[in-house]
Write a structure and sequence with these properties.
alpha/beta, single chain, 152 residues
Length: 152
């Protein structure tokens, strides 16, 4: 057994409806030096069901990091962000907006809703992969996160 498999993987929840972006993010995380487990949901309603451990997600592990697109079906990323950051059981989970929107109003609104970070998706494939790996590096090698089990 590989030594890194003895530790728990970093749990990442990707909330994204674009299959191409999902594949790119999955590829970037698979080539990462950080042991991780990626869960993917494709709309805002499903995201909240996952985070609240309801229905088919009753046994889901609490994510260490959420990557959230703003433009989602059924419930927008903005609505998901607002609900997560106002829920005492979820509010401490780092939530990174990863979206194609460069709109200043989206940026301001996301930070006003307490997003931890706002990143615009690069168009270039190599840059996109670098950005995803940088997000993971930053949140799991540089930042000190609260312990699981606190308010989570």
């Amino acid at each position: 057994m590989c030594p890194e498999k003895l530790v728990e993987p970093i749990e990442i929840l990707l909330i994204e409806d674009n299959p191409g972006d999902i594949d790119l993010i999955r590829e970037a995380l698979e080539t990462s030096k950080i042991y991780n487990a990626l869960s993917v949901v494709s709309d805002g309603e499903e995201a909240l069901t996952f985070l609240r451990k309801r229905g088919k997600y009753v046994d889901a592990r609490c994510p260490d990091l959420v990557l959230l697109d703003l433009n989602l079906p059924r419930k927008s990323g903005r609505e998901v962000l607002a609900e997560v950051k106002s829920d005492k059981d979820l509010m401490q989970i780092p939530l990174v907006i990863l979206t194609s929107s460069r709109d200043e109003e989206d940026i301001l609104r996301s930070y006003n809703l307490h997003a931890n970070c706002y990143i615009t998706k690069p168009i270039d494939l190599n840059q996109f992969i670098k950005v995803v790996q940088s997000i993971e590096d930053f949140w799991f090698t540089i930042v000190k996160l609260p312990p699981k089990g606190g308010n989570r």
